[in-house]
Design a protein that fits this description.
Strand content: 25-35%
Structural class: alpha+beta
Order of helices and strands: EEEEEHHEEEEEHHEEEHHHE
CATH architecture: 4-Layer Sandwich
Number of strands: 14
CATH topology: Phosphatase 2c, domain 1
CATH class: Alpha Beta
Number of helices: 7
């Protein structure tokens, strides 16, 4: 593939919602290369030249504040493993994204299970994790649970990239229920896969999506979907004005979802790809 540079812009917001007392959602925005690792703010833009980017959303579960702790463990582990893969790649050691993500998800799962066995206050502690790793020309993703990654191509439309690891998600994939029936199903929040949470079986969904300028990606917790249909997510992201003083796409998504529902914590990260304003690297 030709050496084409891209710019990447992002916005992220998390809200406790109207009902819950604490926020068990976490999101991460991270830039890294072979030398540096930088936590990014809730809003920004940068060039993909010489760096990879990771954006992730995790929804914790468990008693007291252990769900909040679980989601933070999930995002913190990312900062330790992914930069290592960049250094190996720079050194000429071939590392496939699937292998790296499988190791990452396995490590988080093992950590959460160990904590759950060792401390009574952490029993049953677990988390979902939906992660987008932006490398040159490709968004590589890993996913477990019922948080989601959506793809909005420049040409239009919206596609849910990940599968909901729930019985209801399985029914919908089989075509036995539609989006409305899935939202109203009494077992819509019952996970059959998660990181930790006593689940001995965990098989992350891993894949990749090629991107071009104009493409967008949305990462969100299930609380966002509780207040917005897929078509509304697309409409809000497409119609968000850009400029000083304007709400970001993530802010508009979260605010609208909380207004419509707000029964759960609500988190959204929106990432957009554009043509780079920087020139190509010097020969």
């Amino acid at each position: 593939m030709p050496s084409v540079l891209h710019d990447i812009a992002w916005s992220g917001v998390s809200h406790v919602g109207k009902v819950r007392k604490n926020n068990e959602d976490s999101f991460l925005a991270l830039r890294f290369n072979g030398h540096d690792l930088n936590y990014l703010g809730k809003l920004g833009s940068a060039s993909t030249l010489g760096s990879d980017y990771v954006f992730a959303v995790s929804d914790g579960m468990g008693g007291a504040h252990s769900g909040e702790f679980a989601s933070k463990i999930a995002v913190d582990r990312i900062t330790k493993l992914l930069p290592r893969s960049f250094r190996l790649s720079a050194a000429g050691v071939e590392t496939g994204y699937a292998e790296v993500l499988e190791e990452l998800f396995g490590s988080i799962h093992s950590d959460l299970l160990s904590l759950g066995r060792s401390y009574s206050e952490c029993a049953g502690m677990g988390a979902t994790l939906s992660l987008c790793w932006f490398r040159p020309h490709w968004m590589c993703f890993g996913h477990v649970g019922d948080s989601r990654i959506y793809f909005m191509p420049k040409a239009g439309g919206i596609t849910q990239v990940t599968q909901d690891h729930t019985h209801v998600g399985w029914l919908r994939r089989k075509g036995e229920i539609n989006e409305r029936e899935a939202r109203e199903h009494p077992r819509r929040n019952a996970l059959n896969q998660a990181l930790g949470a006593g689940h001995q079986f965990m098989e992350p969904e891993i894949g990749a999506v090629a991107y071009v300028p104009g493409d967008r990606f949305i990462i969100c917790s299930d609380g966002l979907v509780d207040g917005l249909w897929d078509r509304h997510i697309e409409e809000i992201v497409k119609t968000t004005p850009v400029g000083p003083g304007e709400l970001t796409a993530a802010q508009r998504l979260v605010n609208t979802s909380v207004e419509n529902s707000g029964k759960d914590n609500v988190t959204a990260v929106v990432v957009e790809i554009s043509e780079s304003k920087e020139g190509p690297p010097c020969p």
